[in-house]
Specification:
- The chain is mainly alpha-helical.
- The chain folds into three domains: 2-141; 156-188; 256-328, no CATH class.
- Helices cover 73% and strands 0% of the residues.
- The chain has eleven helices and no strands.
- The protein has helices spanning 2-22, 34-61, 65-93, 101-107, 121-124, 127-143, 154-186, 196-228, 234-237, 241-302, 325-328.
- The longest helix is centred in the last third of the chain and has 62 residues, at 241-302.
- The chain is elongated and about 130 Å long.
């Protein structure tokens, strides 16, 4: 994919520039000015964060197994460097919150670019582990004996039900009395007279105008929240064709990544088996010849055959480590 390759190339170029700045040929003098030193840390932190975001996105898009492994190693290293810089900034400022507006202005970035997203592979690559944990918890819960409820006689059950029902009736009666009291206070029944129709009309108008105004206020509040970006416009809540296409492409990429990873693992096992079948005998004979030659050279040098290294000490691996007989058998 061209986009992922571009992200990877840009991240590699920026990372090379940062490494050249952090590891110059001549070590720089220690910075004594605390403000200047913090500005340098903040600049490095922001730039490494941008590299992290690019690599994380490239890793999520690439489907080639070997490329994903290489990007993953670089991505983990960059994440470690970001944590180191954050730790240094906290130690120098004695605070976990930092103001880097000037750095963002110099790099022409926005505050959202400082956010460190959770890598998507944390969720996608740990799905099997999460499922295994859920299955294990389910098995454990099945093994635990259920807590038996306390036995209760019929008379005790009836008493509990009666108490609960009386309490419910009391609450309902209190609500009803309170509602009647409020209604009598707000809408007092006047004596029938000449102005009874006018009073009724005024009362209806008050209720209607209040309802209309509350509705207008609610609409205005929703429009203001949409304008400020605090809520989503209802017409955008439904998934659009572009979003559905992007989700389908993302799901297809996940499937391809899994298929290619399985093919890579299978090919690795096949190549190992093929090497054992084709070159296993030749490698075994070559190792035997080298071991015999080593024993012969040791006898010629010391006059006696050395003891074969124990398995706990490494076995024949010590022989191929280019050590002298005294180093292999110090006794």
């Amino acid at each position: 994919d061209y986009h992922s390759q571009t992200l990877w190339a840009d991240a590699q170029l920026e990372l090379s520039c940062l490494l050249a700045e952090e590891l110059p040929a001549e070590p720089p003098r220690p910075e004594k000015d605390r403000v200047v030193f913090f500005q340098r840390l903040a600049m490095l932190f922001v730039r490494y964060t941008q590299i992290f975001r690019q690599l994380e996105k490239a890793y999520d898009l690439v489907v080639h197994p070997q490329k994903r492994r290489f990007i993953r190693s670089v991505l983990d290293s960059v994440m470690g460097r970001v944590l180191e810089l954050k730790n240094e900034m906290v130690e120098k400022e004695f605070s976990e919150y930092h103001y880097m507006d000037d750095v963002l202005h110099d790099l022409k970035l926005i505050p959202a670019d400082l956010e460190i997203p959770i890598p998507r592979y944390f969720h996608s690559e740990r799905s099997k582990e999460v499922q295994q944990r859920k299955a294990m918890l389910t098995d454990i819960l099945k093994m635990v004996e259920p807590v038996m409820a306390k036995e209760m006689s019929q008379e005790e059950a009836v008493k509990i039900i009666q108490v609960a029902e009386r309490a419910r009736q009391g609450r309902e009666r209190a609500k009803f009395n309170m509602k009647n009291l409020n209604m009598n206070t707000v809408y007092r029944i006047k004596e029938p007279g000449a102005d009874s129709a006018e009073s009724a009309a005024v009362c209806i108008q008050k209720v209607w105008k209040g309802y209309v105004q509350r509705k207008r206020t609610k609409t205005a509040r929703e429009e203001e929240m949409i304008f400020l970006g605090m809520t989503m416009d209802p017409k955008y809540e439904a998934p659009r064709p572009a979003e559905m296409t992007a989700q389908a492409i993302e799901a297809s990429t996940r499937v391809k990544q899994m298929e290619h990873e399985e093919a890579y693992q299978k090919a690795t096992v096949d190549v190992m088996n093929q090497l054992r079948d084709v070159e296993g005998d030749d490698m075994s004979k070559s190792m035997k010849v080298q071991i015999q030659q080593w024993f012969t050279e040791c006898r010629n040098a010391t006059g006696t055959f050395p003891d074969y290294p124990d398995e706990e000490d490494g076995g024949s691996a010590l022989i191929f480590a280019e050590k002298t007989p005294q180093q292999v058998d110090p006794i």
